[in-house]
Amino acid sequence: MKAYRVNGGRPLEGTVAIHGAKNSVLPILAACICCAGICEIDNCPRIADVDTAIAILEHLGCRVVRQDHRLTVDAATVDRCDIPGDLMGGMRSSILFLGALLTRCGRAELSLPGGCALGRRPIDLHLWAAEELGACWEGCSPSLRCTCRSMAGCCLPLRCPSVGATENAMLMALGCRGVTTIENAAREPEITDLARFLTAMGAKVVGAGTGTITVEGGRPLHGACHKVMADRIEAATYLCAAAGCGGLVELVGAVPDALTPVTELLERSGCILQPTERGLLLQSDGRLHTPGPVVTRPHPGFPTDAQAPMMAALLRAVGITEFTETIFENRLRHVEQLRLLGADIRQYGSRALVRGVAHLHGGILEATDLRCGAALLIGALQAEGDSTVLGVHHIRRGYDNIVETLSAVGARIWETDYTG
Ligand code: EPZ
């Protein structure tokens, strides 16, 4: 099986180009079928989840052309409303085609989505929103078949600020008569990027980025051009790698304002961060100290997706750092893997106490999800000696060219075949 081999123990120096955001381009690609036109999506990362989204679009009848980091999606020829289980199971974002298909076709035949194993990952809020807007369900889980003769906008008070449910409700609302108000909406920057794209398609979306979003349904929609926002989690990942290893790295294309919860912690741990004309510069001597407690929260709090990379960055930080994961029930699986590098981490349910150690040693590690994989690479880059990281398919779902990117800043990392 494919694996990444890492020989750690050296600083990172140079520039890293930040790509378009995975968690923005995926809802945007689903939204492309809401109009019978051609959409040009620029700054699209070359990652496995985008490949899955393209496969779903082509299955539905779209013509998709990819030229490097630009996708052209012609949705004029959408001729079906069903998505097979193998495509649905490839990622979490496949569930966003529920809202897009209801708006385009008035019907959707799906099954449960896939995605990282971070806990239960229910979709009750997505299904509830569809019903509230007028969809009728047929059959029972795991098949999700619903039709809607007519959908009428209404108020949708979300039980929790779910990113995906907010995005799905926005897409469903496009096909409704009247106005839909999403309350307790997620405020992540990717929601705002989706709203920008929908607005470019002719939609009227107000309040994205706040807790209350209104969408005026029934407006004619047309093809649009859009440049995907920079990936703040990819940027956070490389910041954590440079912070932990030490060095001087400039993230070209990073947006400092979108990274505040992460950069504040890294500054408190002893890093020097400085916005530049091209993005953001981080300097670290590699001898960090604990920044204090790290608690994940919905945006604008510290992002759960940066929790594992931040933990890896602080494995050698002097002092004890308490991590608390509040979003997902099972998002500390990187702890037992990082321990294989000699890390001193004690886990108590959704909390983990990381006591900094002077040295880490190499090991054979296995990624269990996307951000766990990134954290294992960050740990291996700090370790003295060789490490092997398995489960690279998880990493490839969300990181464009991570081996080449890290190699370009001095990391000794390469892909290899692992035979055990
Ligand atoms: C999105 O997942 C992101 N994925 C995740 O990134 C991210 O961790 C998460 O938002 C939180 O920021 C994409 O955008 C593709 P949620 P999503 O719905 O939408 C509960 C990564 O590493 N919930 O905001 O699935 C849920 O159980 C990935 O890039 C319900 O109870 O997350 C969780 O506890 C991982 N019912 C909480 O809400 C529902 O119907 C937040 O989940 C939906 C969610």
Descriptive notes:
The structure is a single chain. The strands form six sheets. A four-stranded mixed beta sheet has the order 21-22-1-23. A four-stranded mixed beta sheet has the order 2-14-16-15, with helices on one face. It has a four-stranded mixed beta sheet with strand order 4-5-3-13, covered by helices on one side. 55% of the residues are buried. The protein is elongated and about 65 Å long. The chain is built from 14 helices and 23 strands. With 420 residues, the chain is α+β, with helices and mostly antiparallel strands. It is 31% helix and 26% strand. Helix 5 runs parallel beside helix 6 (163-174). It folds into two domains: 2-19 and 230-417, Alpha-beta prism (UDP-n-acetylglucosamine1-carboxyvinyl-transferase, Chain), CATH 3.65.10; 22-227, UDP-n-acetylglucosamine1-carboxyvinyl-transferase, Chain, CATH 3.65.10. The mean pLDDT is 96. It binds ligand EPZ. Ligand EPZ is lined by residues 22-23, 26, 92-93, 116, 120-126, 160, 162-165, 186, 233, 304-305, 327-328, 370-371, 398.
| CATH architecture verdict of the largest domain | Alpha-beta prism
Number of strands: 23
Biggest sheet statistics:
4 strands, mixed
Number of helices: 14
CATH class of the largest domain: Alpha Beta
Derived structural class: alpha+beta
Small-molecule components bound: ligand EPZ
- Morphology: elongated
